[in-house]
Description:
Elements: H1 2-15, H2 47-56, E1 64-68, H3 74-83, E2 86-91, H4 94-106, E3 113-117, E4 130-133, H5 137-150, E5 156-160, E6 167-168, E7 171-175, E8 182-188, E9 192-193
Parallel strand pairs: 1-2, 1-4, 2-3, 4-5
Antiparallel strand pairs: 5-8, 6-9, 7-8
Helix pairs in contact: 2-3
Amino acid sequence: MKGYSITLAAVLACCAIPAAAQFPPGIAGQKYRHYSNSLAPYVVSPQTIVERMLEMADLKPGETLYDLGSGDGRILITAVQHFRAKAVGVEISDSLVRSTNDRIQKLGLQGDARVIHDDMLNVDLSPADVVTIYLMTDSNEILRPNLEKYLKTGSRVVSHEYPVPNWKAKRVEKSEPGDHAHLIYLYEMPPGKK
């Protein structure tokens, strides 16, 4: 029974880790081998958190949102349906790209939402008004130079659960839907430094 408890604890701990993308060859992959060549495994954000992230970002009709590690596409779909924004997902998993694009098609949202099958570190983010992420702090640190390179002044970055190192958040909110407290970090470009 003791071995079972340890195994269950390990599985539950893994489930608490978030969404997304693969390292390109040569990017500090040695340090992150335990993610099987990804910045983080896929974990779904609760719908209430998705809505709060987009509200905090003050996503406006016609703006463009990029969701890095878009998973099942719930952020993209919510951005289009509830905020009348354009939405682009970036996802490394073939099956998630296919299933999300199929869902977008079935909902008739293909004119406003799509998923790119690529590594988030390879994507030009310059069209983005808002970027959403659910990655661990170390992964956010790897992604940070791309955000600083591509995002224009006034663009917002919203991170579920984990901060972006060396950036000063414009706002941090704690939300408690269900039995787990979630942190949401809002940054505005250019972000202040800690």
